[in-house]
Design brief:
mainly alpha; two-stranded antiparallel ribbon
């Protein structure tokens, strides 16, 4: 059961990838779906056994490396944290596989798509069940590879290839820091196995590295690695471009797999991070800044998938600043609820795109809610959960994070709360901007497109309905276990909280006005969107015209891409051109090629002497003999 949850997706990927050409498109689809369903069943049973029956275990598969002091096995670590991630990843991925059967029904290479999708899931499962840092890094790089393949799945599009390459390169920047953190961890603890590292963390709290606290440096390096995978401020630029992949890919990357890996890493390394207060402060500030930064951009984007993508970036910021103040449980809780409503929003957006003949610009939609009522309803549910409206899943986890930020009683906690509250207001605003412009008002699409607007097939709608149930219920059902009265028994030893902070206890004693502020900003954001886009629809254009600089600044995503292009890309291109034209062409090619040209010229001259006439050869021999005798006589 524990092994099946991880390896069934790999089985499906192998069959579809290597034998899809022989078994056909339909068989490839349903083989991968069946394998994912079996994995989801195993994941659910594992979750029950490990988390609710308190039976954590480690499954040893094989000794991976044993060289000197470096020894570790390939093993599956199942504690509550891992079990939550396995159950969530397999369940969400199964629904996305089913949805993809309908969404990709006209694609020409479906076996390849489903093989990539299942491979992506397997790599994420390897990451979250890792028993050591090297195995975690294997999964870490695996989801990077799979994301590259899926983002660039439609490789005939130049934009898709560029987006895949951008995601791969930006993530490699973060991975350099991860590898440095892993190396320093081994140097400090003498091991990469979690059990050894966590047991020795208190004793190594005073360890030094180049005059700095070693655990602080490890914490910062690992967080920088997490910034790449989880698209935090500075290494976020790949995330919106990842929308070039098919919509199910966007849902899988943003809801259940790649971008949540960084948050998982922070929670997994909590026994080390708790002894690195400066690193945690950095995590808090960067996470809070990301939450607000991404929310501001989401307010002006017009691509339906990019709006939701920036929403993901913002919500990840919430998770990170929750971890930064020591509330890893709340961070994972929001990761868990977010998986349901974000997958719902992305797949709902895919249903809209499917209905609108592949149109993604919300300015060219409108007036379609009666034609696709089920999609409209599930988009409402997903947006209510995202905005943190009471009774929906996001309300429980987001409010816990805001309350935890204030309960931390620190300057960075207050900063995080302010950024989080402002981001919550903007989140509600852009969520309803999307709904109103997409579904309401007069139709802005051409007549031909409007004639063909239709509801998606049931193979796509059923996953949406199931995710809707999760977006409504998961918060209320799991809150007592993740952050409530049963939290200590539920989490066991899978997450470490510093006893000096008492963060789990402080969470329940946050100021009473904090939940009121959280509700107020959510409803205010919805109200503002209703006024601007339903009651006074001409005002947004006037505001953009009144402050064109600010509007362009947000529309161009704070000019991060342009800044990086000027600082990194253009200098690199100029250096490459110089090395090519001067180093390669002039010296590397020039000198050998010049010598070769001389040799070739000499050979051509020599060839002309070879006439094939005996008389000519005899004459040349006589001349040579005369010259030899002359030199001999002169020498005497």
């Amino acid at each position: 059961m524990l092994v099946g949850a991880v390896f069934f997706p790999l089985l499906g990927a192998t069959i579809a990838g290597f034998f899809g050409r022989w078994i056909g498109d339909r068989a490839s689809q349903w083989v991968t779906v069946l394998c994912m369903a079996l994995a989801a069943l195993c994941g659910a049973l594992s979750f029950w056994q490990v988390a609710f029956l308190a039976q954590p275990s480690t499954v040893q598969i094989v000794t991976w490396l044993d060289i000197g002091d470096l020894e570790f096995a390939w093993a599956l670590r199942y504690d509550t944290l891992s079990a939550i991630m396995v159950a969530m990843v397999t369940f969400i991925s199964t629904l996305i596989h089913i949805y993809s059967v309908g969404y990709m029904s006209h694609d020409a290479t479906r076996p390849r798509f489903f093989a990539y999708l299942s491979l992506f899931t397997f790599m994420m499962l390897m990451l979250v069940t890792a028993d050591n840092l090297v195995q975690l890094f294997f999964g870490w790089e695996g989801v990077g590879l799979a994301s590259y393949l899926l983002i660039g799945y439609w490789y005939e599009k130049q934009s898709a290839c560029a987006a895949a390459m951008k995601a791969f390169i930006v993530n490699r920047v973060g991975d350099v820091f991860f590898m440095l953190g892993m190396a320093l961890t081994f140097a400090t603890f003498g091991s990469v196995e979690f059990s050894t590292i966590f047991a020795a963390a208190p004793a190594q709290a005073q360890a030094q590295f180049m005059g700095l606290p070693a655990l602080e440096v490890i914490g910062v390096l690992l967080f920088l690695g997490a910034c790449g995978k989880s698209a935090q401020l500075g290494l976020h630029t790949w995330l919106p471009d990842a929308m070039e992949g098919p919509t199910p890919v966007s849902a899988l990357i943003h809801a259940a797999t790649m971008v949540t890996a960084g948050v998982f890493l922070m929670a997994r390394m909590s026994p080390v991070m708790e002894f690195a207060p400066i690193a945690l402060a950095i995590v808090t500030v960067v996470g809070a800044s990301t939450a607000l930064f991404a929310a501001t951009i989401g307010c002006v984007q017009n691509d339906i998938k990019r709006i939701i993508a920036y929403s993901t970036c913002s919500q990840l910021g919430y998770m990170f600043f929750a971890a930064g103040v020591g509330l890893y449980q709340a961070a994972v809780f929001h990761l868990f609820t977010h998986a349901f409503f974000k997958a719902l929003l992305f797949l709902g957006a895919g249903s809209v795109i499917h209905a609108m003949s592949d149109e993604q610009d919300i300015r060219k939609m409108g007036g379609i809610w009666k034609k696709i009522p089920i999609t409209y309803a599930v988009m409402w549910i997903g947006s209510l959960a995202l905005a943190g409206i009471p009774l929906f899943a996001g309300y429980y986890s987001k409010d816990a994070i805001l309350e935890g930020a204030m309960a931390a009683h620190s300057t960075v906690g207050v900063y995080a709360f302010i950024c989080g509250a402002l981001a919550a207001f903007l989140t509600a605003f852009y969520s309803w901007r999307l709904i109103i412009l997409t579904f309401h008002g007069k139709p802005r699409a051409d007549h031909h497109t409007m004639e063909h607007v239709h509801e998606s097939p049931w193979v796509m709608l059923v996953p949406l309905l199931v995710l809707s149930i999760g977006a409504i219920t998961t918060g209320a059902v799991f809150a007592p276990y993740f952050i409530g009265d049963h939290a200590h028994a539920f989490w066991g030893a899978s997450i470490f909280n510093s006893p000096e902070k008492h963060m789990m206890e402080a969470l329940h004693h946050a100021p009473e006005w904090v939940p009121l502020v959280a509700k107020a900003v959510a409803f205010s954001g919805i109200g503002l969107a209703f006024l601007l886009y339903m009651v006074f629809p001409n005002i947004p254009a006037r505001l953009a015209a009144a402050a064109p600089g600010l509007y362009r600044f947000l529309l161009n995503k704070w000019y991060f891409d342009e800044l990086y292009d000027r600082i990194f890309v253009q200098p690199a291109l100029r250096l490459a051109n110089f090395l090519w034209k001067t180093g390669d062409t002039k010296y590397i090619d020039g000198m050998p090629n010049g010598a070769a040209s001389l040799a070739a010229g000499a050979a051509r001259g020599t060839v002309q002497l070879q006439t094939g006439r005996v008389a000519s050869y005899a004459f040349a021999m006589i001349i040579g003999l005369v010259a030899f005798i002359t030199i001999f006589l002169l020498g005497r």
